Amino acid sequence: MLVGLVADIHGNLHALEAVLADLKCDEVWCLGDIVGYGAFPEEVVDRVRDEGIRCIKGNHDDAVVRGDFKWFNPRAASAGRWSRSRIGAERRTFLERLPETLELHGVALVHGSPIDPLHEYVDPGCKESRLKRFLEMTSTRALMVAHTHQQFIRNVGGGFVANPGSVGQPRDGDWHAAYGLLDTESLKLRMKRVRYDVKAAARAIRDAGLPNAIALRLFEGW
């Protein structure tokens, strides 16, 4: 089966629509952080739900559900509170019920790490011994993570740990929306990037009264 892997959409509807239009696959899986930062939290939740995308929960999803932003920087907290005010009870319930981890077709999915599913950052330079430990905590040869907004693939023994990057707010120096394409039979993973209307996404953030710095970082890919 060919699966599209998306993560860290962060309320960026323009980026999500571009990725979904580019995807040619059997299913789409999301590694969390559907909301936060961007100007379209309700539309993105609805799109994910309507498309039947299999999702796990991210730290921003969790914070928006609980209304607890004490660990966020001021910009992220402001956007989180705004997202919470917009999505309503039904969408909050959808986010609340998302699992923190999943194993699908021999692939483990987590937003952070198997040790701390919501909050731990697994960056591209993570020690191989730690990646091996993460993989051993699953019953699979492939572990997909998110949270850092950076694409990477790291081979570990006979398997790998990978991050498909961020759809809505890349932080690896490339502003293009990022996603992955995984063959669950061969476990071959391709990293993909796609153009989207970044100017419109940034303008919507400003029009919503959200911090301008959130809009500016979309152009920088950081």
What does this 3D model show about the protein?
The protein has 222 residues and is α/β, with parallel strands linked by helices. It has a single domain (2-220), classed as Metallo-dependent phosphatases (Purple Acid Phosphatase, chain A, domain 2, 4-Layer Sandwich). It has 7 helices and 10 strands. The chain has helices spanning 13-22, 41-50, 59-66, 74-96, 128-136, 198-207, 212-220, and strands at residues 2-6, 27-30, 54-55, 101-104, 107-110, 142-144, 152-156, 159-163, 177-183, 188-194. The strands form 2 sheets. The protein has a 5-stranded mixed beta sheet with strand order 3-2-1-9-10. A 5-stranded mixed beta sheet has the order 4-5-6-8-7, covered by helices on one side. Helix 2 runs parallel beside helix 4, helix 3 (59-66) packs across helix 4 and helix 6 runs antiparallel to helix 7 (212-220).
User: What's the CATH class label?
Assistant: Alpha Beta
CATH topology: Purple Acid Phosphatase, chain A, domain 2
Q: How many discrete domains? A: 1
What is the CATH superfamily label?
A: Metallo-dependent phosphatases
Briefly note the structural class of the backbone.
alpha/beta
State the strand order across the main sheet: 3-2-1-9-10
Biggest beta sheet attributes: 5 strands, mixed
Q: What is the number of E strands?
A: 10
* Count of separate DSSP helical elements: 7
- Radius of gyration, taken over Cα atoms and rounded to an integer in Å: 16 Å
| CATH architecture descriptor text | 4-Layer Sandwich
Q: What order do the SSEs take from the amino end to the carboxyl end, as H and E?
A: EHEHEHHEEHEEEEEHH
Catalogue the unreliable spans: none
Q: What would the average pLDDT be, to the nearest integer?
A: 97
> What proportion strand?
15-25%
End-to-end Cα distance, whole Å, is 32 Å
Helix content: 25-40%
Shape type: globular
